[in-house]
Amino acid sequence: MQCNLAVIKGDGIGPEVVTEAMKVLDTVGEKFGHTFDYEQILMGGCSIDATGVPLTDEAVAVAKSKDAVLLGSIGGNTSTSPWYKLPPNLRPEAGLLKIRKELGLFANLRPANLYDELKEACPLKAEIAERGFDMMMMRELTGGLYFGERHTEEVDGVMTAVDTLTYNENEIRRIAIKAFDIAMKRRKKVTSVDKANVLDSSRLWRKVVEEVAKDYPEVELEHMLVDNCAMQLVKDPAQFDVVLTENMFGDILSDEASMISGSIGMLSSASLNETKFGMYEPSGGSAPDIAGQNKANPIATILSAAMMLRYTFDLDKEADAVENAVKTVLKDGYRTIDIHSEGTQLVSCSEMGDLICERI
Ligand code: NAD
Asked: Its annotated pathway (predicted)?
């Protein structure tokens, strides 16, 4: 298969971790007979330095012409970098917001799982960590409270702020379909999280999710109230497969799920639109404190590339090979500095990439 990618290395550790992910994709290409073609575009601080803006329209056009985008991370030290003295619409993060909007990325996927070898990094009780977990948090990204109308006004002499939470049935249906499609590639269970005992938007959410579920008889659907879900994530995370929820609930719950998985350097993510197109990136930031030192953990980016193989290109066997190679490297005792502990062998960012390639 010919896979055409736009690559955004970005700032900080971005170039280091993306280089390792590209190495892994090339190894997959050699082993399984695929070709990965990369066109690099600028976004974030490096784009500001080169062009004066965090993302040019030309760069967006390149991204739109490809099958997927592989992204490192963008931004610098928010206290000391000159990029943060610019107006908000010219700062590095504005590039990220622009590309998400331009590409119509409405579904955010963040896997949260616990590797046997990293169980000691899990902040949950040992008996819960022992059972392990492997879930996919799916958050609606372009609707709800963060995009509704808002204003602040004085009402009868009292300052009053209003935010509105709006969803229409089409917005709910398209992400529900994505969630059920993804559940079909996993353990075939969807937990839809809402606040249907209080909110109208949640009652519509529940109704539309139930309609979509009828097209997926093999997938088990359960509904859970958001407050209960927050509790269940720390009490019994093993029960979850795909967790589907709206924007603000997903913002909070996906961070909770990340936290129980251990290191930020392990957490991959994807944002998808209605087609097979996706943007794949690590959940962490540009880590300016360790940038340029070949110390960063490239696994989050490498696992993001595996998600790309699975969800954009339907290359499940190839994605399995990458994920299994990561597991084997951890089992063999190799660790980057963020997950290093006594009795394990410390390796650099590029050494970790090489070790994973060898095992593919
Ligand atoms: P951060 O995630 O960059 O770093 C937090 C801590 O985690 C740091 O100690 C860092 O060294 C460590 N860390 C992160 N990724 C790592 C990895 N792969 N390997 C080893 N250690 C890793 O968060 P921050 O310091 O709050 O933000 C730094 C910059 O990143 C800011 O400009 C922020 O706006 C930006 N940011 C970008 C994205 C993105 O590109 N999507 C996301 C979050 C933050």
From this structure: Amino-acid biosynthesis; L-leucine biosynthesis; L-leucine from 3-methyl-2-oxobutanoate: step 3/4
Determine whether domain 1-111+264-360 maps to CATH 3.40.718.10. Answer: yes
What pLDDT does residue 302 have? 98
Computed on alpha carbons and rounded to an integer, the radius of gyration of the chain in Å comes to 21
Distance from Cα 248 to the centre of ligand 1, integer Å: 21
> What are the DSSP calls for 235-295, one per residue?
H-GGG-SEEEE-HHHHHHHHHHHHHHH--GGG-EEEEE-SSS-EEEEESS---GGGTTTT-
Query: The domain 123-260: what is its CATH number?
Result: 3.40.718.10
Tokens representing residue 85 in the block:
């003295």
**CB-CB neighbours of 299 under 10 Å:** 29
Tell me the pLDDT tens digit for each residue of 322-354. Answer: 999 999 999 999 999 998 888 999 999 999 999
Dihedral over Cα of 207, 210, 215, 216: its sign: positive
- Per DSSP (E only), the strands in 41-166 are 68-73, 107-113, 134-140, 150-155, 158-163
Measured CA to CA, the distance from residue 41 to residue 7 in angstroms comes to 6
> Of all residues in the chain, what percent carry a pLDDT higher than 90?
88
Name the segment(s) of the chain with CATH classification 3.40.718.10.
Answer: 1-111+264-360, 123-260
Q: Work out which ligand 1 atom sits closest to the CA atom of 297.
A: 19
Q: What is the CA(284)–ligand 1 centre distance, in A?
A: 5
Residue 46 corresponds to which tokens in the numbers above?
A: 């490096």
Q: Mind telling me the catalytic residues?
A: 146, 195, 227, 251, 255
2: its two tokens: 């010919």
For atom 8 of ligand 1, the residue with the nearest CA is 287
Position 262 confidence tier, pLDDT thresholds 50, 70, 90: confident
CB-based pocket (< 6 A), ligand 1: 13, 17, 73-76, 78, 93, 96, 264-265, 281, 284-290, 296-297, 300, 338
